[in-house]
């Protein structure tokens, strides 16, 4: 992942992923989620290449054709959180390389706010608070390093 994003670090603590059983047949259960953040800024136009690169890592770590990890990159910006996906839908914008962008959360009124299509886990208070923390670090810095994006 560092080849795609540069130095990365964990953001927040691992969270249970119990919002859906969508991945259970492929990955087992119980599942947990971990957010990672690129320490240095990542260009917005690099999102398609990052998604394609992370999909290659997913394939590399697969066992018997089943993923052992699901890596979904997103960008935290001052105004929103955008998720990259390979799945098209009416509210998603094609970026190229088989990748679509979804405006998952907008930052308004001092907080990240979900859209009607936002997945319930991203709409949760825990994830929105974590992303708000990443946003604050991006804008105002951290003790010695500034986080810029979430992947």
Produce a short descriptive summary:
The protein is built from five helices and eight strands; from the N terminus they run H-E-H-E-H-E-E-E-E-E-H-H-E. By secondary structure, the chain is an alpha+beta fold.
List its traits.
5-stranded antiparallel β-sheet, 151 residues, 28% helix, globular, alpha+beta
Describe the protein.
There is one protein chain. The chain has 151 residues and is α+β, with helices and mostly antiparallel strands. The protein is 28% helix and 31% strand. The chain has five helices and eight strands. Strands 3, 4, 5, 6 and 7 form a five-stranded antiparallel beta sheet that branches. The protein has a three-stranded antiparallel beta sheet with strand order 1-2-8, with helices on one face. A hairpin with a 3-residue loop joins β3 and β4. About 3% of the residues have low confidence.
Derived structural class = alpha+beta
Helix content: 25-40%
What is the number of helices?
A: 5
What is the global morphology? globular
- Biggest sheet features: 5 strands, antiparallel
Strand content: 25-35%
Distance between the termini: 9 Å
Low-confidence stretches: 143-147
**SSE topology string:** HEHEHEEEEEHHE
| Rg calc | 15 Å
Mean pLDDT: 92
Number of strands: 8
